[in-house]
Amino acid sequence: MTAYDAVLFDSDGVLVEPPPAETQSTATRAAFREVGVDDPDRRHVEAVVDGITVEELEGICAAYDLDPETFWEAREHHDERSQLDEFERGVRGRYDDVSAITDLPVDCGVVSNNHHTTIEYVLTQFGLEPAFETYYGREMTIESLELKKPNTHYLERAMADLAAESVLYVGDSESDIVAATRAGLESAFVRRPHCRETELEVAPTYDLGDLHDVADLVCGDGRRGRS
Q: Each residue of 124-163: pLDDT tens digit?
């Protein structure tokens, strides 16, 4: 008897190593150069990297007299290309403990704020397609920024695909936990090295060390990690 009907996982920071901030900054600067801005304000670059809103994006583009759609298309292209390049060169990889959750006795899915096409690449690149019945990342559009977690949009789409009622969402960020809470899901926060000391304002259902703990939780009583 398992504890859940289904388990959903974030990708970056849970299944694979997250992209370095410097890589994302470099990709953002390349996008600015493509649209004719050779020396963008550092604060604008940081805003794009740190999770920009539609309103913030429009304000930044107005500062350089840029069309937001044109700039965002360039940004998404360079951001995705930089990520795929790091995977191909082995700079980023799959976490070793992912093997603990590739054969769980329940349906599984992936829900990420990264591009849908990047998630598709990750699942193929690391042989994870058989482990997940569904997956969602965001489209490469400005509109998708409104649908990112902590919005529940993609979580709800994955839940509908799996026809699951009792679902656990596994993440590594505050927005993951908030999204799960808003969607009425239990949540597990996995403390990878990059979030080992993170202090959460919203408590997850479980605070765990790795994906072995997640597998124990799903397959057994696994209650030792409860917050």
A: 999 999 999 999 999 999 999 999 999 999 999 999 999 9
Closest alpha carbon to 86 in 27, 10, 172: 27
Q: What is the CA radius of gyration of the chain?
A: 18
Listed in sequence order, the residues at least 6 apart from 90 whose beta carbon sits closer than 8 Å to its beta carbon are none
Residue with tokens 């690149």: 125
Q: What is the pLDDT of residue 1?
A: 58
Select from 124, 147, 125 the least CA-distant residue to 137: 147
Q: How many helices (H) and strands (E) does the chain have?
A: 8, 6
User: What is the dihedral angle through the alpha carbons of 66, 68, 74, 75, rounded to the nearest 10 degrees?
Assistant: 110
CA dist., res. 13 & res. 219, Å (int): 22
pTM given for the model: 0.93
Q: What is the pLDDT of residue 3?
A: 82
Burial of 64: CB neighbours in 10 Å, binned 0-12, 13-18, 19+: middle
Burial class (CB in 10 A: 0-12, 13-18, 19+), 38: exposed
Would you call 225 helix, strand, or coil by DSSP?
Answer: helix
Q: Where are any strands of DSSP class E within 18-162?
A: 107-115, 134-138
